[in-house]
Amino acid sequence: MTSNNASSLFRSCEMTHFKLYIPLEIAQQTVAEFGELGLVEFRDVNVNAFQRTFVNEIRRLDEMERKLRFLQLQMSKSEIQPKVPLQQLYYSRTRTQNEIDLMEERLNEHEQRLIQMNNSQASLNKRFLELTELRHVLRETTSFFESSIRHGSIDSLNSPNHTEGAHLLSSGAPPPIDDTHEAIERGESSSLNFVAGVISRQRMGIFERILFRALRGNLYMNYAEISEAIIDPITDEPTSKNVFCIFAHGKELLAKIKKICESLGATIYPVDERGDKRRLDALDVISRIEDLKQVLDNTKGAKRVELLKVADQSEIWENIILREKSIYYCLNFFQQSEGNKKSLIAEGWCPTESISAIKYALSGVTERTGSTVAPLFNEHPTHRTPPTYHRLNKFTQCFQDIVDAYGIATYQEVNPGLFTIITFPFLFAVMFGDFGHGVIMTLFAAWVCYSEKTLATKRWGEIWDMFFGGRYIILLMGLFSCYTGLLYNDVFSLAFNVYGSGWSFHGKDNSTGKYYGVYEKTYPFGIDPVWHKSDNYLLFSNSYKMKQAIILGVMQMSFGISLNVFNYNHFNKKISIYLEFLPQIIFLLSIFGYLVFMILFKWLTVWDGYNPPGLLNTLIYMFLSPGTVDPSEQLYTGQATVQTILLLIAFCCIPIMLFAKPYYLWKEHQRIRGQGYDQAARSSMESAPGSHDVEELHSEEHFEFSDIMVHQVIHTIEFCLGAISNTASYLRLWALSLAHAQLSEVIWEMVMENAMEYGVIGIIIGFGVWFQLTCGILILIEGLSAFLHALRLHWVEFQNKFYGGEGRKFLPFSFAKIAEEHRSGEN
Amino acid sequence: MSTINIIFVTFALVAFLTVGLYLAAPKNQDQVVFRTAIVLTAICCWTMYAITYIAQLHPLIVPEHGWDPYVKDAPAHENH
Question: Which domains can be identified in chain A, with CATH numbers?
C-alpha cells in the first residue's frame, strides 16, 4: 500500500513540464504521433486568438465537414447506412497532406454531383406533380360535365342555354328560377366559362367563402377530393388536395376568380371545353407521366449509386476530418518561434515515466519524414501545479470515477480510489446483506462482465450505460453482499442452518406461554438461525448491527486520518504528523476508540446474572460527570479513572490542533526573516526574466497569520464536531440493513407464505409476484439507496479526513479519446 | 460452551492466506491494486465475522418463540 511505484493508484503519476521545439514542416506529423500515443497534454501558450497560426486549415476542414454532413444527410434521406469500417481501420494512420487534398477533391465532386442530381430531381418532381394534378383535374372535370349532362343539359357549354345554365348552377337540383339572375346572365354574357385547378384541402373552405363573396354568388362551383395523397416536391410531405371547377360568366369574373386562385395558392390548369379534346389531353398526360416516371426512376437510381459510393467512405472520411481538425486545434496552442518562424514551440505536461516513450516516438517521426531537423524535447521546470493523472484500467476506472465525481485528487496526494475498490462494495454489502439478493446481483454483473465485448457496442439508453459502466462495482457489491448475507444468515429473509443451532428449547414456559432458548454453544459462522423466527429478533439484531456500524465507522475514520501521514511524508511536512495527525487520531480514539473498546469488552464479558450497563449512557456520563461512575453501571474496576484520563487527553488535543500548526508556521516565518533570507529570495526572483510564475510564488510566500489562524479554527471545529456527527452517521449502516431485512421479510410473508396456502398454482403465481417484487424493490431500489449511502460515507465521512480533491485532471491529446467522445456525442 | 479461541484461529488462517496472496501478487503495474484489495478484503471480512461471533459469545438475551420451534409447520404469520 505504501509503494512508491509511480504508476500505482496510490498517488497520481509524477508529471514533467516540457518545452518542445518542432520544425514547422513536420509539426503536423509530430502532433499526429502524440495523438496516437495519448500521453501528452498541451497547454495553450497563445494568449489571444490572433496568434493562432492554423485558422485557415481549420476553416478548410470545417468546410469539408459541412460537405460530408450534407452527403450523410442525403444518405439518411435515401436510407443508406454508412459502411462501418473495421475497428483497426478506425484508428488508422494519419493521412498526408496529399491525401487530404485528394479527399477534399472527391468530397467536392460528390457534393457537386449530388446537388445537380437533387436539382434535376426537384424539377422533375415538380413536373410530375403538375402532370398528376392535371390528370386528376381532367378526370374530375370530365365527371362534372358528365353528371350535368345526365341532368339533361347536353352540350350546355358548347351552346350555352340559360335555363340549363341555371340547372348547372343549382347543381342538378330543380332550380328555383330567379328572373333577375337570368336577366343579368342573358344581358351580360354570351358564354358560360370555367376555371379548373387544384387546391389543398385545408384551404377549400376559405376559398369557397371568398369566391362566393367576391362574385356575390355569381358562380357555380364543383369540387372533388383527390383520393391519393399528393407529395409536395419541396417539403416531401404528402398533402391532400381537391380538384375544383368553377363556372362563371364573363371575362372579368373569370379574371377575378383566377386572381383569387393565385392568392390562395391554388394551381390552375388549362382544360378544354370540348369533351373529345379533353379525352385526348388526358391520354397525352398519362403517357407523359409514364415517361417522366421512367426518367425519375433513372435519376433516383443514379443518385443511389452515387450515395452508395459515398457510404463506402463516409465513416473513414469523417474520422480523418476529425483527426485533422484535432491536430490543427492542437497546433494552434503552439507558439511560433520568434524570428524566422520556422518552428513551433509547444508547452505541456507528460508523465515523467513516459518521457522515454515520447522521445522514442519523436525520433520515429523524424526518421519517417526524413526531416533534417529533429524536434527538440526539453524538460522545463515551472511553478505551475501539475495535473493529476491516474493510470486506470477498465476495472479501476469505475471506482476512480466515484472519487473523481467528488473532486479530482490534488497532485500526488493519497488517492482514496485505491481503497474505495474494496471499502465501497463492503459498506454497501453491510447495508444490503442478503445472500439471495447478493447472488442475483453477482450473477447479473458476472454476465455483463463476461460478455462485455458484445455488450459494449449495445446502445440501450442511459440507464443501461450506467449499469454497464459500473459492472465491476456491481460485481464486487454482489460478492460482498453474499458474504454479509451469510453472516446475517439472511437468504431472501430465510435462514440457513448449516452447523446446527447453538440454542435448545425445553418446553413451554407456563407463566408467559412462550418457549425460551437455552444457550449451549455459539453458532460458528454468522447469526444463529434460531433468531430468525424468534419474537425478540429485532432486539438482538439491532444491538448487534448498531454496534457493528460504530466499530466499522471508527475503523474507517481512523484509517482515513492515518492516510494523512503518507501525505505529510510525501509533501515534506513531517512536522504536521505531530501537530495535526497525532492530536486528531488521539482525539478520535480516546472517545470513540474507547466506545469501541467498551463494546468489545461488554461482548467478551460473562455477565452471569449481572445487569450490564448501557454503553450509550456510559459515554454520555463520561462527559456529564467525569470522574464518577455509578457502581451499578460499572463495566470494570478503575473505570472512572480511565475515563477521566481519556477525557483529559481528548481535551488536551483540542488546543494542540488549534494552535500548534499556526504557531509553528509563524515561528518558521520569523526565523527566515531573522536570517534575511526572504529578502534575498525575493530579489533573486525579481531579477529573473519576467514571467507570471514569479507572481504566483510571491502570493504563496506572503504570510498572513490571521488567515492561517481562522483556517485552523474552522478546521479544528469541523474535525471535533465531525468526529461525533460522523460516528453517528455510520449508524446508517445499521438503519439501512435493518430496513432491508425487514422489507425482505414483509415481502416474503405477504406474498409467498400466503400463496403457499393455495397449492401448486398459488405457489407458481406467488413466486412470480414475489420474484418481481424482490428484483424491483429489494435489489433495484434498495440497492440504489444502499449505493447512495455508501457513496455518502465515502465522500463525507471517509474522504474529508484526508482528501483535498483540489486537483485538475490530466487531459492528454489522444485520438482514441477524441473518437470515443465523438461517437458518444453522436448517440 | 464455545470460546473466543476460534477468533484467533480464523485470524491466523486469514492472515496466512492474506500474506500468501500478498506475496503471490502479479508483478505488473496492478500489483498495488491487487495487494490493497487483498489486505482490505481480509480486514473487512474477518472483522465482520469476528464481530458477529463475539456478539453471540456471551448472549445477554435469549431467543423467545411464541410457538414450539421444534414443530416444523408452525403457523408462520403468528410469530411477530
Answer: 1-50+332-387+811-827 (3.30.70.260), 54-133+284-324 (no CATH), 159-272 (3.30.70.2750)
Output the pLDDT for position A88: 53
CB-based contact A753 B76, cutoff 8 Å: yes
Question: Rg (Cα) of chain B, in Å, rounded?
Answer: 20
The answer for B29, left when phi > 0, alpha when psi is -120 to 50, beta otherwise, is alpha
Alpha helix stretches (DSSP H) within A170-274: 179-188, 204-214, 251-263
Q: Give the separation between CA A259 and CA A214, rounded to whole angstroms.
A: 11
The CB-based long-range contact list for B47-50 (8 Å cut-off, 24+ gap) reads B47/A551, B47/A552, B47/A555, B48/A430, B48/A483, B48/A484, B48/A487, B48/A548, B48/A552, B49/A487, B49/A525, B49/B10, B50/B7, B50/B10, B50/B11
pLDDT band at A709 (very low <50, low <70, confident <90, very high): very high
Nearest CA in chain B to A399: B33
Distance separating alpha carbons of residues A764 and B1, to the nearest angstrom: 44
Q: Kindly indicate whether the ipTM for this predicted assembly is greater than 0.90, answering yes or no.
A: yes
Query: Which pLDDT score is estimated for B13?
Result: 95
The interaxial angle of helices A732-747 and A417-431, nearest 10 deg, is: 40
- A514 chain-B contacts, CB cut-off 8 A: 64-66
* Confidence band of B35 (pLDDT split at 50, 70, 90): very high
What DSSP assignment string belongs to B16-41?
A: HHHHHHHHT--SSTTHHHHHHHHHHH
Q: Residue A491 in contact with residue A436, Cβ under 8 Å?
A: yes
Best mutation site among A482, A515, A607 for testing chain B: the one with the most B CBs within 10 Å?
A: A515
Alpha-carbon distances of A416 from A2, A386, A399, A620, A634, rounded to whole Å: 13, 19, 9, 33, 40
Residues of A in contact with B31 (CB under 8 A): 3, 5, 8
Contacts of A145 (CB under 8 A, 6+ apart): A157, A275
Average per-residue pLDDT in chain A? 84
* Degrees to nearest 5, angle at CA A599 with A596 and A600: 90
Is A229:A167 a contact under the CB 8 Å cutoff? Answer: no
Phi first, then psi, for residue A269 (nearest 5°) are: -120, 140
Q: Which of these, A652, A661, A734, lies nearest to A432 by C-alpha position? A: A734
A724-768 tens-digit pLDDT:
999 999 999 999 999 999 999 999 999 988 888 888 888 899 999
Q: Which helix (H) or strand (E) holds A27?
A: helix A27-37
